[in-house]
From TrEMBL:
Chain ranges of the Amino acid transporter transmembrane domain: 131-518
Protein name per the record: Amino acid transporter transmembrane domain-containing protein
Transmembrane among keywords: yes
A Pfam family recorded for this sequence: Aa_trans
Topology versus the membrane: Multi-pass membrane protein
PANTHER family: AMINO ACID TRANSPORTER, SODIUM-COUPLED NEUTRAL AMINO ACID TRANSPORTER 11-RELATED
Protein family according to the UniProt entry: Belongs to the amino acid/polyamine transporter 2 family.
Organism the protein comes from: Cytospora schulzeri
Length: 533
């Protein structure tokens, strides 16, 4: 890592690039785009993201380099592969992108299967499949529209209708900007991952911060998915077998806690033991389909809900309520996909900042509309009775809702291993960087992660509290604090850096206030009754 950075710095010095404190960030980003495009042509049109400067340092001896290739911006083509960990290629949570879920800060040719040959590695990367704007849009939208969408009606209940709408729109704009900021930061720092950028800017402390944020976000997702399994599967099983609770032995399948233990240990845990999650890639398609079914179900059934089962409204619920900071955490949990942004950027056939920004704008916009529909349909129906999992507000014998519950529960069982994979990779790459695969560590980490998340899922049935805590801590760090902090460190002073400072202050305030409010609500048992079976 140190050698790669020193070469990177030397390349900048030889080419006359100004220090970060004086250079213009947009011009610098375009310079990176331009240089990488020309190298991409020379290497067959494909270049690994973030390593354009390493290639560049080997080619600057050619006098005709800039004249021949300086106009090739449109041919820019990066391919991210952030992890040759122990010689094992890792596959992401997203479909159609061959790269690791947890981006490593290490350069992929510093060992591993290509024996340190940068040209052999580049040729392999050049041949990897690329995606167009539509595929990239689907991948990013799928990253955003996840389990967190089920908690959006609850977020509106916490914030109030008026402030909830304003928050959802405003946070979408901020998240959109910070996602794009990650790519700009990557170009300015020369790093090829979110982790690598933060470590480049803040050293060991930065690596600890981003690793902790990624781990907490993924582990919080595991706990939330376990809670959802307990909320959904028993309803479905009892709808299929009405007398299930009274059956001997099989009656335990009507118990929430038993279902969580049986299904997580019987389905999710074996899938977690895979070393390569490529086998779980279809879970991404299942996730998107189940989200569409859930949104349609909530909208239709909300309209058909009898007035006797509807909630009531007060002035704070319609305007500004006391849980506005907790609502920010819930919304943030749904929108964070920052750890996948560079993977999606690298999947583009022509990954320029403009094209990636277009993908980001469309993805966050569509995701905001989906969350808005879900939030309005659920909250306007159940009002002060809205639960963290809005599906729990519907009757247990509603067939259409039970189909949505089944889709959601099965989706969570296959998605939980993906989050466990992220946690495991963060732990292995932090504590045992560069070491070969160890089956004992693999089993210990996998088992401890699944069992601990399962125990926490059994202990709580308040999905809203899980969304609040995870959103207030790790989601805020990854969305509102770390990307603008890195930008402030890397870019020259301009109006954008002052905007970044404001976002950092906002993120820190939300993190502190939301965490204290969420913990206080849990201790006092406030915030509404959660349905535990």
């Amino acid at each position: 890592m140190a050698e790669a950075r020193s070469q990177h710095a030397a390349g900048h010095h030889q080419s006359g690039v100004e220090p970060a404190s004086t250079r213009d960030p947009e011009a610098e980003a375009l310079l990176f785009d331009d240089e990488a495009s020309s190298i991409g042509e020379e290497e067959g049109g494909r270049t690994p993201n973030g390593y354009a400067n390493s290639f560049d340092s080997h080619r600057r001896s050619s006098a005709s380099y800039e004249d021949e290739h300086r106009d090739s911006l449109d041919d820019l083509d990066f391919q991210i592969d952030d992890g040759a960990h122990g010689g094992q290629h890792r596959t992401p949570l997203l479909t159609g992108i061959e790269a690791p879920s947890v981006a490593l800060a290490n350069g992929p040719w510093l060992g591993g299967e290509h024996g340190g040959d940068v040209h052999s590695w580049a040729e392999v990367e050049r041949q990897r499949p690329k995606s167009g704007l539509q595929s990239a849009f689907m991948n990013m939208a799928n990253s955003i529209i996840g389990a967190g969408i089920i908690g959006q009606p609850y977020a509106f209940r916490q914030a109030g209708l008026l402030s909830g709408v304003i928050l959802l729109v405003g946070l979408t704009v901020v998240v959109d900007w910070t996602i794009c900021l990650i790519v700009v930061n990557s170009k300015l720092s020369g790093a090829n991952s979110f982790q690598g950028t933060v470590e480049h800017c803040f050293g060991r402390s930065g690596l600890i911060a981003i690793s902790l944020a990624q781990w907490l976000f993924a582990f919080g997702g595991m706990v939330a998915f376990g809670v959802i399994v307990g909320d959904t599967i028993p309803h479905v099983l009892q709808a299929i077998w009405p007398g299930l609770r009274d059956m001997p032995v099989l009656g335990i399948l009507a118990d929430r806690k038993a279902v969580i233990v049986i299904f997580i240990l019987g389905v999710s845990y074996p899938l977690t033991l895979y070393r390569d999650i490529a086998k779980l890639a279809k879970a991404s398609t299942l996730a998107l389909m189940s989200m569409v079914i859930i949104i349609i179900t909530v909208i239709i059934q909300s309209v058909l809900m009898p007035s006797a089962d509807r909630g009531s409204f007060t002035t704070p619920l319609l305007t500004i309520n006391s849980g506005i900071f907790q609502a920010i955490g819930v919304i943030s949990f749904a929108f964070v996909c920052h750890h996948n942004s560079l993977l999606i950027y690298g999947s583009l056939k022509t990954p320029t900042i403009d094209r990636f920004s277009r993908v980001t704008h469309y993805s966050t916009g569509v995701s905001m509309l989906a969350c808005m529909l879900m939030a309005l349909a659920g909250f306007l129906t159940f009002g002060d009775q809205t639960l963290g999992n809005v599906l729990n507000n519907f009757p247990a014998d509603n067939t259409m809702v039970n189909v949505a519950r089944l889709c959601f529960g099965l989706n969570m069982l296959t998605t939980l291993p993906l989050e466990a994979f992220v946690c495991r990779e963060v732990m292995l790459n932090y504590y045992f960087p560069g070491e070969p695969f160890n089956m004992h560590l693999h089993l210990i980490f996998s088992t401890s992660l699944v069992v601990s998340a399962m125990v926490l899922s059994v202990m709580t049935c308040d999905l809203g509290s899980v969304f609040e805590l995870v959103g207030a801590t790790s989601a805020c760090a990854m969305a509102y604090i770390l990307p603008p902090l890195c930008y402030i460190k890397l870019a020259s002073r301009s109006w954008k850096t002052y905007v970044a400072i404001a976002v950092v202050i906002f993120g820190c305030c939300v993190m502190v206030i939301s965490t204290f409010q969420a913990v206080g609500k849990i201790i006092k048992g406030e915030g509404g009754v959660a349905q535990c079976m």
